Amino acid sequence: MFLAPEDAEIEIANSAAKFLARAIPLERLHGAGASPALSTAVRAECGTMGWFGLVLPEARGGSGLTAVEHALFYREVGRHCGPVDILAQGLAAMVTDDARLRAALLAGDASVALAVEDESALRLLGSPDATLALSVARDGARLLDVSMIEAAARPSLDPATGMRAIVRGTPRIVAVSSNGGVWSLGQLGVAAMQVGVAERALDLIVEYAKIRETFGRKIGTYQAVRHACADMALRAEAARCQVWSAAAAMKEGRSDAHVHLDAAKHLADRAAVGNADVDIQLHGGIGVSEEHHAHLLLKHSLLLARVFGTKRTLLARLLHAELEV
After folding, report:
1. CA-CA distance, 324 to 257, in Å (whole number)?
2. What is the per-residue pLDDT across 33-45, written as a single tens digit (0 to 9) for each?
């Protein structure tokens, strides 16, 4: 397996980085007018750029790329605390066999929220105006029509992710897929987003440590800060390597790809939450202010850690996992 991006893969990552830095900068989440919704204009731009159909076969309107490019893109989404709508939209296009609906999803004309099970109900994460919701399990996925559901917006811990009230009952099912690949790509996408969060947290404190002074010295010269930054780099590197390994395993169709995915999600969750937490601590007073990016990263990582596999379920599966020899 090739465990590092190269050539065309790096070009895709660079293109995604430039696009997302302009379309969904972290600055959008500050101020009274901040909105967690993926705007209609940005959704349409994503569709035009083909970001929603990266791994979808060309015969179905996608780009026909692999899990590696999928991971590279969502790593950049994570660096900007991108809304989960972007991931839900792309996964939804894999579920439906309706060519017209799939085209609308790929173009960004239809909006999709992520439906997360909450006991006997569904909680919708995403734009409040989403007319469709995607519910994903390890053995398949359902695309639901929530256009007629009255679900008012609810306060969300994560400023980057809108949330709607719990939906009880069963909305009309638009499409069903028994393809476990939808979950796998969702899990890989979220793990990659968490890697992006971990890296962004590290970047923020490294830059700050170069300019912030105490007692006449840059704080980066103190071992307490340098060691903490080194630990952050180690967590991010371990998670990044495991995400690349999982993406390569999926690309090559390995039988143990699901094991690599579970490990990637667990390490990425630890790296994102841990790095975002330390980032706040090392920034001192400014780290807990509303105007700073640090709290955005922590809140976003905490939400992502609850979707596509939680700590308990991931560790339980890894306990009895077997790797391909």
Report:
1. 9
2. 666 667 888 899 9
Name the residue with tokens 């998670």.
239
Q: How far apart are CA 87 and CA 75, in angstroms?
A: 11
Helix axes 257-283, 294-304, angle to 10 degrees: 150
Does residue 6 carry a pLDDT above 80?
A: no
Sheet architecture: strand order including 132-137? 153-154, 163-168, 121-125, 112-118, 132-137, 140-145, 172-177
pTM of the full structure: 0.93
Cα three-residue angle 291-292-298, rounded to 5 degrees:
125
Please give the domain boundaries of the chain with CATH numbers for all domains: 8-177 (1.10.540.10), 181-319 (1.20.140.10)
Amino acid at 29: L
**Contacts with 256 (C-beta within 8 Å, 6 or more apart), sequence order:** 249, 321, 322, 323, 324
